[in-house]
Please model this.
Amino acid sequence: MVESITPLPLLELRNITREYPGVMALHNVNFNVCAGELHALVGENGAGKSTLCRIIAGVTRPNSGDMLFHGKPYAPSSRSEARNHGVAMVMQELNLISNLTVAENIFMDRMPTRGTLISYRDMNAAAHTCLQTLGLNDINPDQKVWALGVGQQQMIEIASALSRHCDILILDEPTAALTQRETEHLFAQITELKKKSVGIIYVSHRMEEIKRIADRITVLRDGEWVATSPAADVDMDQIIHWMVGRQLPEPCVRKTEKGTVALRVVNLTVEQAVNRVSFELHHGEILGFAGLMGSGRTETMRAVFGADRSDAGEIYLYGSSTPEQIRSPRDAVRRGIALLTEDRKQQGLFLPMSIRSNITMTRLQSVSTARTFIRENIEAEVAHQWCENLSVRCRDEEQTVGELSGGNQQKVVIAKWIFRDCDILIFDEPTRGIDIGARYEIYQLLDNLVKKGKAIIVVSSDMQELMAISDRIAVMSDGCLTAEFRRGEWTQEAIMEAALKELINREH
Amino acid sequence: MNTDGGKTAGDKRYKTAWQTTGLEYLSLIAVMAALVVVFGIIEPRFFSKATFLQVANDVPAVVIIAVGMTYVLIISGIDLSVGSVLGFSAALLGTILTRYHLPLLPAILCAILAGALCGLINGLVSVRWQLPSFIVTLGMLEIARGATHMVTQSRTVYIGGKIGAIASTHILGLSVPAILAILIVIIGQIVLSKTVFGRYMVAVGTNEEAVRLSGVDPRPVKIGVFTIIGLLSAVAAVIETSRLEASDPNAGNGLELQVIAAVVIGGTSLMGGKGSVVRSFFGVLIIAILGAGLIAIGVRDETKRLITGVVIVAAVILDYYRRRLGRKSAGFGKE
Model:
């Protein structure tokens, strides 16, 4: 796509600097986008990608530096001002209002009216067209947003951004919550937009995606510009090298020495979500759970952990032949089961509280006198030790968890459960939204835990990840367990086939 | 990035934590001092025994309930029934003493148990059916007030001197209720910031689902907090009854809002997860001094209410700026 790069870029950023107290988010960064190109922005969490996007979209203002848009100075002071200039952004976090309908969300700031009243007929029709372009035929514009899944909500955000005319479209990790099919629809739309000379800024951690759709790639590291290159000229290793500034170790392959059975699940059933699922988990192994979004993996794990009630089935622990009664997470934790939830911020962490309090929450009594009075110096020492062991990057253990990057937050969650000394650790999407560097650190951690004889389940939508770290992979499809592979037996195609099995059966 | 190693790091941090909390109290003490100075300048007679007595009399009961209310707000609940529970406990105390002639101590014990029971019911109902505590305690506000009038037949029960001893006894110049209030504040702050239960309270107010998924049952914490505030309301009832030597069926009417205002002035967030007992104590003092001062300079009751209302809102706005300043200097920043 070298021909499409015109001498005058559509948007140009010069020497952009943005400083937060104690943190240099961006330092003298230059960046530009041309009409009709997709410029990917990559870097580890905390590299400054989101800050750069927010500055372009008018959400944040730079401390210094300037921007040129269509060759004219551009300094939006709000998101709506940027939008009026033709700059649209889909944020990383979902920004929909869950009690309103899909159509109301899309047309929030420009609802079609007849006289003074909203014309729902016009609005729903317009929303319908808008959804169809993204292949979202199964979403009713009249539906309330809360009833939709995260992936569908993300698609609606994208639909909303696409529904208005724009010259620049910023997509900050748009595919993090999308299924393969939704991603394909999005990519098709992106191709359309490029034909219409829209400049697209695309932030993602998924390298395969970037290789596939990007025209140019810019790498940021610790708020500094590292490199910009046509996508065709660089390979993955080079990009990763730029991102982390060092070579990454290969994910290690263990010699599988199967331990004794830690967890045996028989015919676990949760109405509408999980259908007679049975599996075994051994000490010293990682059992991966593959499947599409909504295949019932999370629901299975929540039922095992007692977070949700199961309707039928038994759970046996540590080789015992009497089924366990796990009615609440408390019961599960007491039996040595830990669940590291998919949604860290909402379900795993206490964001305004310190790293120290977060880590010790699972076993506060153990750092207390008479199980009542917290001994803060011992608690701080424990937390300090874990921060060091897991190399959590923080000021100190008194820093609030909300200020940490995603990867470091995940490490705090892991520390919290290792501190509880659970033997069975269930990780639900442990690396979602985490940059490559931190990902490898987390794989390393998982590996160390397995070597210590822990029994680990990893639920992940990233198939490459599962194939790299698992000893066995179980595949779920529409609430059923459809296949189980041992290391060496699996191929990406076979796993995908198993993940789609129930869905295909149903259509016939 | 910079994890400063070594064991001394821990000690250093406690010092700074202590210093910042000291600063937080300082701003409230400054407001109090400013009020005293302003009233003193306008009306020199403000520095009189009458003013002092009024503050000293008004404060203990409110302080004691404010300790419980701080807890309730921290777990992001609210308790509207404290005034009525106070009334009900007081009515029981008066009735038991005059009609059944029980000795003082068992009678007090009964009254306190009754208050704790009301709180326990609030907690159990809101936890069992996952109802907002606003609604449950609104119900209890009516129930307890109704029960108060039934017990007293809507008449003030005069008890006489024997109960008055509690309020009139002074140790080292301080009345027993004042000592009791200070003790409860100290214990309350220790429970909040130094115990497992206190940590759980903050965690429940911050993210209840995360508490549950950490393997800690949040329900006993919530029920416990509501029981504590019920119990403390009853302790306040004993003090009020002793002070008046009578049980007034209207005792504690509207007290809930007075207490919530004081706690909020102290900087406890209505959103939960954040608060301090000692700061609530200062909040109560500020409102009491303001009230006494306005009376001393001869402001009429309606004007007094108006000014108090303005001060409540102004205090919360001030707190907003104080916190923003604190956040800036703490180096708050995202990616």
Summary: Chain A touches chain B through 56 residues (CB under 8 Å). Confidence is low (pLDDT under 50) at residues 1-6 of chain A. The longest strand of chain A covers residues 23-33. The CA atoms of residues 362 and 420 of chain A lie 6 Å apart.
